[in-house]
Amino acid sequence: MHNECMRTTISLDDETHEFAAYYARARGLTLSAAIDELIRKAQAPVASKPEIRYSPDGFPMFPPTGRVHTPAMVKEAESELE
Q1: Which residues contact 63 (CB under 8 A, 6 or more apart)?
Q2: Furthest-apart CA pair in the chain: how many Å?
Q3: Fewer CB near the terminus (10 Å): N or C of the chain?
Q4: Quick check: is 21 in a domain?
Q5: Between residues 6 and 28, which one has the greater pLDDT?
Q6: Which residues contact 53 (CB under 8 A, 6 or more apart)?
Q7: With contact defined as beta carbons under 8 Å apart, do 16 and 23 qualify?
Q8: Residue 36 sits in which domain range?
Q9: Spatial CA neighbour of 34 closest among 47, 17, 51
Q10: Is the pLDDT of residue 39 over 70?
Q11: Is 0.85 surpassed by the pTM of this model?
Q12: Between these two residues, 44 and 71, which has the higher pLDDT value?
């Protein structure tokens, strides 16, 4: 992988340029850095979608993690929301 910058000229259609410029402003980046970041994101492997399991009653369930959620844990989480 190269750590050097390469200077080049590209042509973007108006809509693409507007999107990249908006993205750059929103993230506090230069236009070049924004385009670089967007290209790298496009190359990143896509995370697999989690498998949703359903109970016999048809309710979606959390995927099995081996952790047990106790009533005390649920009450503590509810109290944090208040």
Answers
A1: 50, 51, 52, 53
A2: 60
A3: N
A4: yes
A5: 28
A6: 60, 61, 63
A7: no
A8: 14-43
A9: 17
A10: yes
A11: no
A12: 71
Domain count, the chain: 1
CB atoms within 10 A of CB 35: 19
3-state secondary structure the chain: CCCCCCCCCCCCCHHHHHHHHHHHHHHCCCHHHHHHHHHHHHHCCCCCCCCCEECCCCCEECCCCCCCCCHHHHHHHHHHHC
Tokens of 35: 């385009």
Percent of the chain with pLDDT over 70: 96
Identify the CA nearest to 26 among candidates 40, 38, 9, 11.
38
Pairing of strands 53-54, 60-61: antiparallel
Indicate whether 31 belongs to any domain. Answer: yes
